[in-house]
Specification:
By secondary structure, the protein is mainly alpha-helical. The protein is built from 4 helices and no strands.
Length: 131
Amino acid sequence: MKDNEMMDALVQVKRIGALLNEVLDTSRQLADSVDRGDQVSIQLLVAMREEPIRKLQAADQVLRYQIGTLPKEDARTLTGLLNGETEGSVQQEIMLATQAAANRRILKQVVELDEVLNRKLTHEQSVYNEK
C-alpha cells in the first residue's frame, strides 16, 4: 500500500476517533441532564449530538470508499489493520491499527451509554427492548 493511501486512511481513522470522543462527551452531558430532569438541556444536547454523528457517517463512507478503490491485496491489508491485525506491520500501519482499536473502545462506550439513555428517555418504547 502506498504511503499516501496509508496516510489518508490514518487521517480518517483519527478524525473518526475525535468525532467519537465528541459524541461520547455530549452523551455524558446528556446523561447528566437526564439525571437532573433538565428538559431544555436534554433537547439541546440531543440536537448537538446529531452533527458529529453525521460527520462520523461521512468519515466512515470516505474510509469505505477508499477501501473499495484499492487493489484487492491493499484493501485486505487496510481492512485487517482496521480490525486490529498488526503482525508484520510497519510503524504507520501500527499507528492506524492502534487508533482503530481505540475507536472501537470509544464506540463501545458510546453504544453502552446510548442504550442507557434511550431506556431512560423512552422507557418501554426503547429501541433496545426486545420484542
